[in-house]
């Protein structure tokens, strides 16, 4: 019996997304020269993302060139927990994009081209709006420019950011505080209800005693 070899599946470090593929033809003396261009987005879902356009006579070659160029243009995106630190509006060419931070659990509220860039960067919670051209390429370039500007501003101003662990700890502390407050309210309401019931019983008993005395007096007077 031959020993069986276990093949380990190679895990890709970067996630590659094809945004737009264009077929380009150029007229020359020899005839039409056909080529392809592929707009690629590359990210590791841990804060790094890159965007590039690859051109080649073959489609696969264009995609490979785009991926290679995008890996050279990787940018580290600063994140405040699972979202961006502040809102920003950026215009790049015909594209104009609005990016806003969102609370944890809201998810990625974005269109197709913006979603591709944001998810590749590893941003889990964000709200966005495409304000300019609806062309996918222009929206992708505008989104990438917005993330670059966020990184630049954070580096210049020295904005303090919270990690995912810190935000989770804060949320757990808030939940624990709300639970304790709810328990205290329930305890107070139960004590108040008990006191109300005791008062009601005392009132009923006193009224009953008075009625009994009254009835006894009436019977005595009749006799």
Helix percentage range: 40-55%
Fold-level CATH name of the domain at 15-165: Ribosomal Protein S5, domain 2
Task: Count the DSSP helices.
Answer: 4
Q: What is the rounded Rg?
A: 34 Å
Query: What is the highest CATH level, the class of the domain at 15-165?
Result: Alpha Beta
The strand order across the widest sheet is 1-2-3-4
From the coordinates shown, what is the CATH architecture of the domain at 15-165? 2-Layer Sandwich
- The overall pLDDT average reads 82
Task: Output the structural class.
Answer: alpha+beta
First-to-last CA distance: 117 Å
The low-confidence runs, each spanning 5 or more residues with pLDDT under 50, are 1-10
Summarize it:
With 223 residues, this protein is α+β, with helices and mostly antiparallel strands. The protein is built from 4 helices and 8 strands; from the N terminus they run βββαββββαβαα. It has a domain at 15-165: Ribosomal Protein S5, domain 2, CATH 3.30.230.
Supply database-style keywords.
single chain, 223 residues, alpha+beta, Ribosomal Protein S5, domain 2, 4-stranded antiparallel sheet, 4-stranded mixed sheet, rod-shaped, disordered N terminus
């Amino acid at each position: 019996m031959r020993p069986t070899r276990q093949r380990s599946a190679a895990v890709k470090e970067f996630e590659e997304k094809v945004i737009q593929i264009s077929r380009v033809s150029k007229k020359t003396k020899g005839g039409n020269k056909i080529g392809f261009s592929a707009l690629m987005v590359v990210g590791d879902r841990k804060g790094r993302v890159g965007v590039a356009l690859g051109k080649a006579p073959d489609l696969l070659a264009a995609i490979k060139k785009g991926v290679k160029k995008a890996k050279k243009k990787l940018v580290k995106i600063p994140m405040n927990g699972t979202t961006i630190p502040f809102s920003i509006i950026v215009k790049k060419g015909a594209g104009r994009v609005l990016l806003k931070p969102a609370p944890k659990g809201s998810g990625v509220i974005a269109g197709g081209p913006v979603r591709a860039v944001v998810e590749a960067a590893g941003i889990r919670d964000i709200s966005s709006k495409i304000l300019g051209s609806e062309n996918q390429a222009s929206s992708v370039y505008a989104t990438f420019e917005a993330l670059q500007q966020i990184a630049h501003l954070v580096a210049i101003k020295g904005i303090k950011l919270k990690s995912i662990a810190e935000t989770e700890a804060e949320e757990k502390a808030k939940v624990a505080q709300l639970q304790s407050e709810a328990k205290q309210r329930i305890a107070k309401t139960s004590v108040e209800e008990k006191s109300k019931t005791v008062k009601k019983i005392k009132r009923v008993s006193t009224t009953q005693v008075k009625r009994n005395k009254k009835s006894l007096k009436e019977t005595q007077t009749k006799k």
